[in-house]
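User: Assemble these into one structure.

Assistant: Restating your components, then the assembled model:
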Amino acid sequence: MGQLAGAELFTVVPEGSITTPKGFTAGGLHSGLKKSTRHDLGAIICSVPAAAAGVYTLNAFQAAPIKVTKQSIASSGLLRAVVVNSGNANACTGEQGEQDAFQMRNHFAEVFAVPEEQVAVASTGVIGELLKMDKLIGGIDQLPTHLGDDRNAAEQFCQAILTTDLVQKMICVQVEIDGRAVHIAGAAKGSGMIAPNMATMLGFVTTDAKIEGTVLETLLRQVTDLSFNMITVDGDTSTNDMLVAMASGLAENTSLTEAHPDLAKFVAGLRHVCEHLAKGIARDGEGATKLVEVQVQGAVSDEAAQAIAKTIVGSSLVKSAMFGADANWGRIIAAIGRAGQPVQVDTVDIALGSIQTLQQSKPVVFDEEAALEYLKGDTIIIHVDLHMADGAAKAWGCDLTYDYVRINAAYRT
Amino acid sequence: MGQLAGAELFTVVPEGSITTPKGFTAGGLHSGLKKSTRHDLGAIICSVPAAAAGVYTLNAFQAAPIKVTKQSIASSGLLRAVVVNSGNANACTGEQGEQDAFQMRNHFAEVFAVPEEQVAVASTGVIGELLKMDKLIGGIDQLPTHLGDDRNAAEQFCQAILTTDLVQKMICVQVEIDGRAVHIAGAAKGSGMIAPNMATMLGFVTTDAKIEGTVLETLLRQVTDLSFNMITVDGDTSTNDMLVAMASGLAENTSLTEAHPDLAKFVAGLRHVCEHLAKGIARDGEGATKLVEVQVQGAVSDEAAQAIAKTIVGSSLVKSAMFGADANWGRIIAAIGRAGQPVQVDTVDIALGSIQTLQQSKPVVFDEEAALEYLKGDTIIIHVDLHMADGAAKAWGCDLTYDYVRINAAYRT
């Protein structure tokens, strides 16, 4: 899987949403888990058993919903629905938390008359507090009248999964497989505790492609490594991260396998969906005023490039400089140097957008005014060329701002 | 080397300084490298060739003064002096930067009539700009009239090595070796770009102990791993970090070796000096309002405990919560879980000071008012017990504040 998604292989569907792929409905509502009146409970439902795959947090303390969802997907590889709450992560809540997550799943299955092991659950919010089960159960009971297959219904779902996110993140692309229109869509939430290796991030992919769950899982992992695992907001990794994909198969293509001639189109579409959501999470990081993209090339391997790109985009000093629109490339080279990867000390180029600041490791006199103007923009691209070999990678993050501190100094209260 | 320095093995010298050990003079002045009128050039000089040792940054882009100092110490293991400037790091300055660092060393050697290979140089400040050599040379010419062997002279040196530090960091302890009083003292600067594995940190240790340079280096490395390498301000590691120790031998003890019966006293004293300076750097981190100490015990090994302690103290979310005086232990357990070390998910205790918040991985109902009161203090201790084995470690850091962002959004300009 090269560094460039094949843009010609798919088209973005204007106004497309997670309910655009055939078979999916979605919705969201306020159940009372959040103190405010914001939505806090949502679901995506498939009219048929969908081939399913999941990718999960690597944090050793995995929250209860992670265990339940893993068990559901493992049991048959199929999902009829995913139900999600925000406002409470149901993490570090012990046996009671696990019972609550199972009850969340089972009550939903009862209400919607689907097999309980075909329901995934996800939670996001505060760690260490028990779910208010009365609110949750009451909310699930109301969900059937809050579902729809239009964009509005999908947006209600997106609202329901937000915590400190400011904007919804959703996209739908179309690819042609066996001459048929296949849709791949996704929705995500992010915001804080976002780091490489699955962030505090919930992601949901719907598609009407016909594909085996095992193939879907392999592709999902590959694409995650180049998208969600290449973003960082603050270097923290949550206990609740989960990316779940459901494939209804209603596009009726011949089943996608490694050998399918149109597989590359599906992968390109899936990658675009995940990359779009990942960049959306980075741009909407807690307190962020801009998206920072780091492009590393010329490294000894893609893995080395990835490590370097992540180190730069995760550096508090680089992030602060981006907030201040300060072309402080010294902090960028310091980050390159501590990434633990092979570098040549005298062949490094650094540019901010089109403004070269370091060439062959020597400072370039550049137009500070032009740099200031560029860095004041809402998207900054940092280019690094190590001139060693062909390893390349992209990573995304955001600036470090007063608002990040404000939000996180007072989240729980 | 256990986790507890033997407090009974040394005494802190009130009003002691880096000029308290016999043979040392020091001083500092404003040469014009900084735009302000603050000191920016300092030196420590020994009246005899001192056994010397250095520990350096692991950043791949090591600044020019690092190369020069390494060469000096390697040539004979002896130093007569170290000369330091602030305001400019002389890093990423290519061949010219290296020539400048050598000229800084050699001009100093000429002025003070000492062998050039017995002079160490250190620089701290902005990366990527050439040193103003006329200012530097002029400053070195004035240094001889700015030296002294009293505390005031030592403080002038401390002033000269500061960048965004707010307070000087200096200490002196006394140990008894062969029945003789031996002094060990240190001065340091830190502030930003401070991370495990030697921070943007300059540290200078003086002692009148008689000790071989190679023994001194071994001890310095061991002690650094438990002090300077256990602090983090922002996870960044600079290009210029350097810790240099000079031992005049004028206390006239029998030379310290691994077999010397009083070696433990010297190690305890050296460790206290380094730990005191490291904590001082953490407390004085950019924008910090408090010192955060993390004590981990019950880990599978000291190394595992170190990794976990560093991950907690480096977490932006934990740091923000400490700034906000929010007893958000969920972020602490999330940090433990992503440290990449063995943990048992159901045996973790967490306490903030004496306030237990998690016991056997279960939330404890605690007095929020008391927790708020404790977290408003200027020193926070986070206790973690994993209940697995005997591995233990301490790490130090600070809170993440609006001022960190303010300082680093506008440093270069």
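Chain A has two domains: 7-281, 291-409.
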